[in-house]
Specification:
Blueprint (H helix, E strand, L loop, with lengths): L10 H13 L2 H8 L3 H15 L4 E4 L2 E4 L1 H27 L5 E7 L1 H18 L3 E7 L2 H9 L5 E4 L8 E9 L2 E5 L12 H6 L4 E4 H4 L2 H8 L1 H7 E5 L2 H9 L4 E4 L5 H6 L2 E5 L8 E8 L6 H17 L9
Parallel strand pairs: 3-4, 3-5, 8-9, 8-10
Antiparallel strand pairs: 1-2, 5-12, 6-12, 7-10, 7-11
Helix pairs in contact: 1-2, 1-3, 5-13, 9-10
């Protein structure tokens, strides 16, 4: 094999390449990076000249990676992780934890238990920069696979083979209702009791994954008639439950403030018995975490373990 000549391109070209791949548009990448679209186009052209093959397919609605582009993107992002690890290693020799890591999590996790832990994390590691995104479970896996984040948290069960679990919390699923509702004082309830009390059902994508269990409890037709809303916005569900618009079928994640204030109540569902929703902290199986990612993952593992509500014998 002939030896490959050293690239004359600087890191700027790969930065632009990554941005275009992420947004699927030169214009959006230019807006994000605050540079001219022509400058990005020029650097992409130099990359394609360097490798002798197109990296993007151009279309009327944007650009899409070619097979060569997908391969290059995978390796450049993996290289970026390794550079980050190298920088963190050097800083570690000097006794400093400096660097960055990233997480995508469900809205309820970010607005609930995670927020309360960031202050203590930064007190210990003040020089670690975090990027925290919110997204659905599928979006979390997509961002993880694309190399845009190191860590993800979501109700993902089972995990696909490309991801590995770092920690899992088993959480009860129940009804979130106004604290002044007639059922609020009960230790448990059922879907049928919710419906008979006049409450319609507000369901998340994670609670919908338990749909077969709920259908067996009340029947598919009755569930269809009683379900008023299905959404991936936990904030919307909590607000609607607080407004008295129905019973939100979900875990207690994200309503700590309302529970302490006595405005909302969480009532476990007998229909589900020992069934739990698995909240999972996960990462890429084929890419090791950066040192900063490992430090943040340790904090997240502790958070996940404290949220765990494994079934007791009385639940089974």
């Amino acid at each position: 094999m002939p030896s490959r000549r050293r690239s004359r391109l600087q890191n700027t070209a790969y930065l632009y390449f990554d941005a275009v791949a992420r947004f699927g548009s030169l214009r959006r990448a230019a807006e994000e990076l605050s540079v001219a679209a022509s400058a990005i186009s020029h650097q992409i052209g130099l990359l394609e000249e360097e490798f002798g093959t197109p990296l993007f397919e151009r279309g009327a609605h944007g650009v899409r990676l070619t097979s060569a582009g997908e391969g290059l993107l995978y390796h450049t992002r993996r290289a970026a992780f390794e550079i980050e690890r190298g920088q963190a290693f050097v800083e570690g020799l000097r006794g400093r934890a400096i660097g960055s890591t990233s997480l995508v999590a469900t809205e309820g996790i970010v607005l609930g238990p995670l927020i309360g832990r960031l202050a203590s994390f930064w007190k210990t590691y003040p020089d670690i920069r975090l990027t925290i995104l919110t997204g659905t479970h599928d979006q979390a896996l997509t961002l993880l696979e694309a190399g845009e984040v190191e860590l993800g948290i979501g109700y993902v069960d089972p995990l696909p083979g490309r991801a590995k679990a770092l920690a899992v919390a088993q959480l009860r699923v129940g009804a979130i209702i106004r604290a002044d509702h007639q059922l609020a004082a009960r230790k448990s309830t059922s879907i049928r009791e919710l419906i008979e009390s006049g409450l319609t059902l507000l369901m998340t994508d994670s609670s919908a994954s338990l749909g077969p269990n709920i259908e067996r409890a009340v029947g598919e037709q009755q569930l269809r008639l009683a379900r008023r809303l299905k959404t991936n916005s936990l904030t919307a569900l909590n607000r609607l439950a607080l407004d008295g618009s129905g019973a939100a079928i979900k875990t207690r994640i994200g309503i700590d403030v309302e529970l302490r204030a006595g405005t909302l109540a969480f009532i476990p569902l007998r229909d589900l018995g020992a069934t739990r929703a698995n909240l999972t902290l996960f990462a890429r199986r084929d890419v090791p975490l950066t040192p900063m990612g490992e430090l943040f993952a340790n904090t997240l593992k502790e958070m996940i373990h404290q949220l765990d509500e494994k079934p007791s014998r009385s639940d089974i």
